[in-house]
C-alpha cells in the first residue's frame, strides 16, 4: 500500500507527514496529527460555541486550532491554524471532496507553479471525513500583521455596494488598486497576473476581491499575501461562470466575442495593462501546459475520490485549450 504525505503528497513509508511537511506546518520538528480527536458534527458545535470570539471571516464552516503537545485543539483566540471540514451547506457535486480539492489546488500552486501559499494539509476527522487545514500567515513573531483584502482596499462593503460587493469589479481594477498600495508594484503585479491565470486554468470561479490581500512585509512595505482559498470550484458548481470577475472594465477582445470565454489573447492584454513583459507573460501561460504531467501526478496522489480526480483533470485540460 502506498502512503502519501497529507501535506506535500510525496510518497512516505506510513500514513502521516514527511519531515519537510512537518517543518512547514510547525516551524520545526514538532509532532502534527493526521487524524483529529473530534468529528464533523463536533465542528458545528465548536463553531457555535466559539463564534462570538472568532476573527476568521467568511461563510464556510471553519474553526481555529492551536497545536499543543502534538494535539490540535479548538481555541477562541491565538489560533495557529484554520480547519475547514466538508461544508454543511448543500453542494451540488462532489461535496465530500471539497477539503481534498482545496488541498490539492494549493499544493499544485506552490509545488508546480511556484506560487507562494500558506502551509496546508488534508487530514482525517474522528468520523473518517476529510478536512482541510492551513497555517495562519497573519501573525509574525506573535504579533498581528497589518493586512487588508481588496474589498477593504477599494472601500467595497455590503452596505455601500450590495450583497454581491465582492464580485463588483474587474481584475483590471485589481491591478490599479495593487499599484496604488505597493511600492514594488512591478514585482507584485506579475505575481498577481500569474495567480489570476492560475485561478482561470484551475477553474476557480470564486476568486473575488476578498480572496486577494496585501499585508505588511518584514521591511515595512506592502506585498501580496500568500495565496489562499485556491480551489477548483466548478467541480462542485458546474453551472457557475468561468471567472468570479470580468478580466476588464470594458474591453472585449475578438477572441472573447467569437467564443464567449477568455483565452490567451485576453490574458496577453491583461499582462500589458499590468506592465508584464510579453515574453514573461507567454512563459507563464506556456508553463501550464509544459507542467501538465506534474499536475496529473499530484492529482493521482491526492485525497480526491476517483471520480473527482477524473473530473478535475478534465477541467484543467479543457482550460488549457483556451490559452494555447
Structural class: alpha+beta
Question: Any idea what the shape is?
Answer: globular
Number of separate structural domains: 2
List the uncertain runs.
52-59
Sheet of most strands: 5 strands, antiparallel
CATH top level of the largest domain is Mainly Alpha
Distance between the termini: 38 Å
Mind telling me the C-alpha Rg? Answer: 19 Å
pLDDT averaged over residues: 93
Strand order of the largest sheet: 4-3-5-7-6
Explain how this protein is built.
The chain is an alpha+beta fold. It folds into two domains: 137 residues, no CATH class; 181 residues, Phosphatidylinositol 3-kinase Catalytic Subunit, Chain A, Domain 5 (Orthogonal Bundle). It is built from twelve helices and twelve strands. A five-stranded antiparallel sheet has the order 4-3-5-7-6. Strands 10-11-12 form a three-stranded antiparallel sheet. Strands 1-2 form a two-stranded antiparallel ribbon. It is globular, with a radius of gyration of 19 Å. About 2% of the residues have low confidence.
